[in-house]
Amino acid sequence: MKDTMTDEQTSKPDQRTRSPFSAIRAIDYTVIFVRDMAAMRSFYEDVLAFPLLRELSPNWIEYGLGNNTLALAKPSRTASETPIPSGSASLQLAFKVSAAEVDACADELVRQGVGLLSPPTNQSFGHRTLFFRDPDGNLLEVYAEI
Question: What distance in Å separates the CA atoms of residue 126 and residue 70, rounded to the nearest whole number?
């Protein structure tokens, strides 16, 4: 049988299917849409002690975390959907630290009156993890590779 494949069929798959999104190298910022801005701001600034980067308005606050920005925002121009029902987490954030710092973070959360969903635990997949929730119910994790 004669080989009748076209140039398009024999070209490298990555050249045919290359997406412009393959240029993305990092998440630059993450936005948490909040229900209670005062409670969330207090939690992220006072309990987690995240450094305030800037406050663009009472409805948009940014914290600097390494090369990333974490923003708290009241839904408005960019999200007009129905708010997430109380008690349901809308996201999970994982914050990477050293193994010893996982335990120190757990101690600080308990000292601040934050309930832990699980104490620092060595997982079979090679992480030491700690889980808790912010005032809006989002699942937060502090972890280290072990």
Answer: 26
